[in-house]
Amino acid sequence: MGNVYMRAFKEGPEITPEPFSNPPFDPQLGFPNGRKPRVMTVSAAEMDAVQLQPGERNYCAEYHIAVKVCHQKWPHFMGWKCHHERHAVTGCLEEDYKLRMMEWERERRLRIRQKRMDAKKAAAEAED
Fold first, then answer.
1. 19 with 107: CB under 8 angstroms?
2. Is residue 75 part of a domain?
3. 115 is in which domain, residue-wise?
4. What predicted TM-score, i.e. pTM, was given to this entire model?
5. Are 68 and 47 in contact (CB under 8 A)?
6. Structural domains of the chain, count
7. Tens-digit pLDDT profile for residues 39-48
């Protein structure tokens, strides 16, 4: 956690992306064949029907629903029978975190690239 703050202090606010900001760069930049968009596989009505908590309403909602259904199927003391479903939730959450961190790092690197290109352009204009 402290590494992010030190990086922001060292590089400045123009380089370090804010956690919940929209990316200023084209999402397709650097992907010649395009990117596969992330889509929710579960509708809001399905999430409401299963009563998912707000923290469970993410890209891993289908796995959270599978865990809830499994817990409804088996009594509380037989929760060990749902370990495959819980493991799928954990794996999905880890993959989601990894994708978000990769996207954050991509934006940070694009900002560094933009700053370098702007400095090069300013140096070229200063020579003229």
1. no
2. yes
3. 45-127
4. 0.81
5. no
6. 1
7. 999 999 999 9
